[in-house]
Every structure is written in structure tokens, then in C-alpha cells.
Design a protein that fits this description.
The complex is a heterodimer of chains A (235) and B (427).
Chain A (H helix, E strand, L loop, with lengths): L9 E16 H7 L13 E13 L5 E10 L12 E10 L2 H9 L11 E7 L2 E8 L2 E9 L7 E13 L2 E16 L5 E4 L19 E12 L3 E2 L7
Parallel strand pairs in A: 4-8
Antiparallel strand pairs in A: 1-2, 1-11, 2-3, 3-4, 5-6, 6-7, 7-10, 8-9, 9-11, 9-12
Chain B lengths: L2 H9 L23 H14 L15 E5 L6 E6 L12 H14 L14 H14 L3 E5 L2 H12 L5 E5 L4 H10 L2 E5 L4 H8 L7 E6 L11 H10 L3 E5 L14 H4 L8 E5 L9 E5 L1 H10 L1 H4 L6 H16 L2 H20 L10 E5 L5 H11 L2 E2 L2 E2 L10 E5 L6 H17 L4
Parallel strand pairs in B: 2-11, 4-5, 4-6, 6-7, 7-8
Antiparallel strand pairs in B: 1-2, 3-9, 8-9, 10-13, 12-13
The chains are: A mainly beta (235), B alpha/beta (427).
Amino acid sequence: MSLSENSEPKLYHYRDAINGFFEFPTSNARAILPRGLQPVEPHHGMSVLTVTAFEFHDSAVGAYREVALSIIVSPRIQHGDAMPRAAMFPFMVGTTTPESRRHGIEVWRLPHHPGDLEVTFQRREGQIDVTAAAGGAPILGLCITDGGDVAWETVEHRYQTFMRDDAGTYLSPLVMSGPFMEHEEERGQLTLHAHGFLNGIDPAEVTTIPFREQWMRDGVEFIHPLQTLAAFAGR
Amino acid sequence: MTVKTRLQQHLQGDPFDYDYSSFYYSSSDDAFTILEPYTEWYDQAQLRGYYLYGQPMSSRPMTRVELQEKLEQRRLNLLNLSSYNYLGLSYRPEIIEAAKKAVDRYGLGAAGSPVLSGTMDVHQDLERELAAFKGKPAALLFPTGYSTNVGLIQGLMRPGDLIVADQNSHASVVDGAILSKAEVRFFRHNLPEDLEKKLVGTPGRKKLVIVEGVYSMDGDVCRLPEIVEIAKKHEARIMIDEAHSTFIYGENGRGVAEAFGLEDQIDIHVGTLSKALGGQGGFVAGSTSLYKYLEGFARSRFFSCGLSPVVAAGVLEALRIASREPGLRGRLWANVSHIRRLLREEGIDVGESTSQVIPVMIRNDRRIFEIAHRLQRAGLYLQPIVYPAVAKHRSRFRISVSAAHTHDQLNEGVAILAHVLREEGIL
């Protein structure tokens, strides 16, 4: 599919979307990011790896589950544009169906793991546990908690996503809406296994406890068409 | 177009969906592109509670202060639980008199870098007496506490070296580390076992471990004995910033290192003159060779005008008072015990604090501004502390207890606090 065919915003309805923020070395982040994208540093020398998991129940490609690794980067601000809450560069995505994988590559130009993943969601009181594996080989385990007494609020958050493929670098605004909770109580957990899915990340260099945990339930992801960014092309 | 409409156009949401960190990083073709969305957010955030920051005070920072409220330009008389001034010295008559004499003698400023024409005899007197107070061979004076850490760390560490600092270190530590271009690792707050992890596999490297005596946002005390043991094991030098603990902790007020009996195990002692002494400036206490080296290489001092001799003279008098009146520390600690008991009786959450810095945990980044507004209208001056100064949803008020507070004032402060928190459903 060409970019011109990708002219309509796309809606993805999810039951759960969880996200953990983990510190890892900026030297590692810079090796992954295209030239021109700047990693956001919570501490000098440390960037932010986010591990995100979705359980979509309704989309143009049906129901599927998705796990993504991204780096938090500086948003691109232009006069008159809406201010995003944050920006990210997803550098590896895995899904559970061939249709969703093909859709993610062709429409959103996102780098995908070549085969289907096995992604499990286990919901317990106050937390959700996700595992991802490929052909039985474990990739990661992510636990996100609700932070105890942290309030859930219905929100509409605007983000920017940067993508890159062989043809160029792109930007897509996206909006996440639904009941939302985030906290920095450091109750969650990440386990990364040595696996090609990590795509350049050294598991030993990534913190195992998220400094921020986010959770959205029964919400909608609304992704705007891609914009080509000439300035960020190439490495 | 109204401010609100323009804000909604740019921000597309509630100003509390954003914070200072949202506007720090941005990429565009023009450095000024961020200014407009930031200004629009700032204007709206002011109306929603950020006006509480930086309201001009028109009195001395005593236990009661006159404040010009920014929101409605009202003049308020408030019970002050916000100012540092831990020993209540900034407005002592002897100190004001010393400053007045200094302005008559020296004029207003140092009129030069301390390495050129900006060192006066009062600066040297202050350095000598600071060194004697700390029991160290030398103390080097800096114009501010911030420039002390920045200049010290940048002056000592180099690319290829390793700095391992507590993750709750002050911004001046972080900025000094960035300027030094050394590798920086942060260990989890006050967790010696994580410090050890960060030091493993670093033999042969020049290393500096940085901690604080009392941490300014949580009011907790450094686990110094374990940290010293680990740093020594890994042959790292140790620096302690006692900004909030000098003149307060230890038998002689020399700080947390004295309280633990570890002064000789610490390589670099940092203190400020703006907290307990109520003045301005900072100092590094250590060996004479450290003094000489930093005098030459601490750029934040080398390239700044020297501390005003008026402030230096006032601080010198404050140092003498703090040294000869240990009862001030006794009064401070009696006040700390008193307010802690009151807070405990009211069931108010003070986190991990054991010091004169007492957080009142609210844990709600939105509501804290409304609560702060109500506290101010009820006569209490307390600052809301929110992300990114502290973690998200660990918002709190920070009580700074002073030796100058009376028990009646502390009773009044806690009564106002408890009343408002109860009405807000926090208690």
C-alpha cells in the first residue's frame, strides 16, 4: 500500500493497553534512533525504553494482540500544531496474526518480528501480566500495576509516533482515549530474555522495575495518516 | 482569541496533562517554536495553581511573612512553614548589624572574580572559620550552593571517569556531572546494594560516589555507613553534600557525617550557607591540596563574581552564632519532635522523613494545587511540590521547621493543615 492510500485515520479498539517506562543507556538508544531524533533523558546518560502491550478486540484487521518496544524521543513541534503529550520511536513490534503484522508494516511502516508471537494477558487484582514468546522461545514478561489508590480518569491523550523504513522516516500523530491511570510507585516488573526481538537492546542494561506505569482500559487508539519527514531521512 | 481557546488549540486538553518536562525537549526548525505552546500552557497552569510558585514576599523570611498573592494581587499575612532558615538566623540583629557594617566598609559587591580582584579579607576570614568549624584543613567559598556542586564536580572529574550518584541528587550534582563529561550512573535512592551494583566491574577507573546528608524532597537521612563501606571496597572517593544537614546534625553541628562518626572517611564535604545560616553561598571543605586544585579548576567560581562581602560578613556572624549557641540546634530538634507528634496524632502521612524537612504526602498531582490554595487562604504558607521535582503522584507539601517557630505557631500550622486535609477528604 502506498502512502497516498493511507489517507484515512485508523481506529483500534482495545480492552487493555499497558505501558512500562524503563531506563537504559543513551548510547544504546542513539545506536537505534535515526539521525535527528533525540532521546529524552530522565537522568543524564539514561534514556527511556517503553514496553507496550495491547489487546485489540476490534480493528480493520480484526482482534489481535501486540507487543512493542519504543524509545521516548523529543516531539516535533510546529507552529499551529497541537502539543503532544510525548513522542516515541517504535523499533520493534510483534503481533499475534499475519493480517495485523502485514497491516502494521504496510500502513504504518513499523518494523515487525517476522512471525506470529504468542502473547498472553493475565489479569489479577490490581495488576496485569503479559508474556510474549515466539515459537515457544520466551521474549519478555511485563507486569503493570494500578498503583493502589491512584485514580482512574477518562482522558484523550495526544502522542507522536516516528517510523522509519528503507524509503524514509515518518511521523504519525495518534490519540489514545479511554479510562487511564499512571503512577511512579515502582511496583511493576520487566523480564527480558535474550532474543532477536530485542533488536539491539542489551537486556542487562535495561532496568527491571518501571519508573512509570501506565494502563488504559476499554479505550480507542486513533492513528492519523503518516507524514513524510525529509529532515530525518537516513542515519 | 481567549487564552483558554488558544490553549485548547495547541494543547488539546487539560493543562494538568502537561508539566514542565513536556516542554523541555522538542524538535523543530526553530528554537523559538516551543515558546508559544509553553507560554499558553504556563498562563493556564498559573490560573490552575502554578501561581503559588514564586509569589513575592515583602517581609523578612520569619515565621510569619507578608506575601503578595499573584492570583488576585492580595496582600497576605501567613504562618511560614516554607523557608529554609532552619536556625532562624537570617534576621538576627547581630547578623543584620554585621551586614550593615560590611556594606559601609566594602560597598555592595566583590567587583571581581575571587581569583582576580574579588577576594576580600572577610572572604578569607569566612573560609578560615568554615574550615575550623568542619575540622578540615581548608574550605573554599563559592557564590551559591548550586555553583559549589557544579564547580566541584566539573573541576575534579574528567571524561572517562565514573560518577555514581544517588538518583535523588540535587540538580547541581547532575549539572556538574554533565559538565565534567565523566560517565554518570545513578543508584536507586539510598539503596547501598544498588550502589554496589553500579560500582562492580570498574577497577582502575577514577570514581566519585556522591550522596547527600539529608535529601531535600523526602527529608530522609543518607545510609552513610553502608555507602562508605561499599565505596571504600571499590576504591571510590566519597563526596557528601550536607546542604540540609550542616549546622543541624552531629554533636557539633558538622553534619550527618559527624553524627555517624565518619567525617574522616569522607573525602569531600559540601555545605551551603543559605539553609541553616539563612544567607547565601556554599563551600567545599577538605584537604589543602583539594582547595588549591579547585581554586584553579572550578569554573563556576573562577568565572563568577565573588560572594558579596555584605553576605559574607553576615554569614560569618551567623556561623559564629551557630557555633557558640548549640541551643539553637536543640530548639530546632525540640520543634521537629513537637510537630512530628502533632502530625502523627492527626494521622498525616510524612513519608520517610526523619529530619527537619518534613513532606506532607498528598499523592495527587491535580488536587494538591487546590489544597495549597485553600491552605494559603487559611493563613498557611506551604509550597506544593509536584512532578518532575518528585515522582508522579508523589506530590507533597514540604514543611521546613525552624528553631524560630514557637510551639503555638506549630500547633496553629498543623491545625490549619489537618482542617483543610480533612475537608478535602485526604484525612
